[in-house]
Amino acid sequence: MKELLRTLIDIPGPCGFEHEVIRFLYERLKDQADEIRVNGLGDLIVTKHGAFDGPVLAVSAHTDEVGFIVKKIENSGLIRFEKLGGHDDRILPAQRVIVTSDNGPHPGVIGTISAHMMKFDNAQMIRNYRELYIDVGAKDKTDAEAMGIKPGDYITWDSPMRDAGSTRVYGHAYDDRCGCALLVNAFETVDFSQVHGTLIGIFSTQEEVGLRGAHAAAAELRPDVSLAVDTTAVSDTPEGMMDHTLALGDGAGIKIMDASLIASKAVWKYLVQTAESEKIPYQTEIFTGIGTDAGALHMGAGGVPTGVISVPSRYAHSCIEMIDLEDVEACGRLLNAFILHMRSKEDFAFL
Q1: Which CATH number is 2-65+172-348 given?
Q2: Catalytic residue selected from 207, 208, 285, 329
Q3: What are 160-209's pLDDT values in tens digits?
Q4: Is the distance from CB of 218 to CB of 296 less than 8 angstroms?
Q5: CATH match for 67-157 among 2.40.30.40, 2.40.50.140, 2.40.240.20, 2.130.10.10
Q6: Active site includes 326?
């Protein structure tokens, strides 16, 4: 799982530019699937039938990561950019990025003032991202254009996976390459000769800009029950707003509510029961500062009972997201067990 995750985060794919991630996943899963296709928005839809009749389960993991896009090249060769997805302007300066053009990747840095200039600046000011720029080492605009850089090129964090302690790793794009790795793992490790029903995997696009891929998939699929597999922000560090209800290393998150979803009571209770029966460590999640593909899935097909399995994460939407691989393992065990335990769509009925 760790090496699959490393491979996935090394493939750049911000919102709207998920093509290489989707291509990798298609090649990885084409021999595992009964049906596999890519829809017009880029969602990869993978279907695998179990040996027995049962419910149709849709599981979504989004392939996009937060990033940026080239807006303008200044005469100086410095690059102005727009955001793809949600970022905190406070953490952008001095971070390493990669600008990907048709000519390939170009390492760069989001510029910042020298510490020697601080006494001439307002130390309390947070610069809006529109005031910032990316420096790829170009001497001027002509030099930048000779590199192949142009408006519309995409930009991602330059932060590969690194170990932190015995079970933790940090890097970028764990949101939601973790979910992608877990869904791939389900297709590759679940014994479908024991499955009652059908698994439809949705590797969605453009989640970070409004769950767009999940909306497109929800409009055409008619599952009996749905899950999203995504990361979630923990609250276990010392900042004042943290309430210590979710912690790194405490197991899989089972969502009850977020900003996009009040989870189906039947689904989240089923997840809890499954975790307890399989002795999988878990923690329940009520956090209104986040949303997932489940926000779109539960409103598709006339309404679908929907829940979420969450991988706990620190420093979300930054270049140094941190996860615990034991939590990832717990989420994988829970997803696989859910697939193997399900028997009837009536188990997830509202009444």
Answers
A1: 3.40.630.10
A2: 207
A3: 999 999 999 999 999 999 999 999 999 999 999 999 999 999 999 999 99
A4: yes
A5: 2.40.30.40
A6: no
